[in-house]
Amino acid sequence: MAIAFQRIPLPPSTFTVQPPGGKTLVNFDTNFFTRPPNLDRTIRLLGQRVDLRIRASSYTWHFGDGESTATDKPGAPYPRLLITHNYVRTGRYATSMDTTWVADYRVGGGNWQPVPGGVTITGSSVGLRAIEASPTLVGYGG
């Protein structure tokens, strides 16, 4: 079953970076999250109908500066900052996320059983630029 699971096409890993627009600030919490789908598939294996329930089980976030983190959480949009990273230097970074998928299967409508192992899909990189903010005094009234 594990070999059949590895041959099923799974969606590429996609994620969102906040703040949007491909820019973040140095020493600022940059937020990362994804919205993974749960996937149901039916295949035929040795003449039998096999149902699969496929779900994301873990994520490895690559921040492009040599740092990465692995988690079982997909992160969340602002204001729930679950997966964040602080860039300490200005520059351009290629961020990415790998998703590991696991599955349960059943044959002919029988009991669900886990598929041994998982399948990791490497995500495409998303460009991010870390910049420094310049403080500006603004006068009011006068």
Describe what this molecule looks like in 3D.
- Pfam families: PKD.
- One of its GO terms (biological process) is carbohydrate metabolic process.
- It comes from Nocardioides humilatus.
- There is one protein chain.
- The protein is elongated.
- The termini are far apart.
- The strands form two sheets. Strands 2, 4, 5, 6, 8, 9, 10 and 11 form an eight-stranded mixed beta sheet that branches. A three-stranded antiparallel beta sheet has the order 1-3-7, with no helix packed on it.
- The mean pLDDT is 91.
- It has one helix at residues 2-6, and strands spanning 16-18, 23-25, 30-33, 39-45, 48-62, 68-71, 84-85, 91-107, 113-114, 119-122, 126-131.
- The chain contains one helix and eleven strands, in the order αβββββββββββ.
- β8 (91-107) and β9 form a beta hairpin.
- The protein has one domain.
- 4% of the residues lie in helices and 47% in strands.
- The chain is mainly beta and 142 residues long.
Concise description?
4% of the residues lie in helices and 47% in strands. With 142 residues, the chain is mainly beta. The chain has one domain (2-80, 96-131).
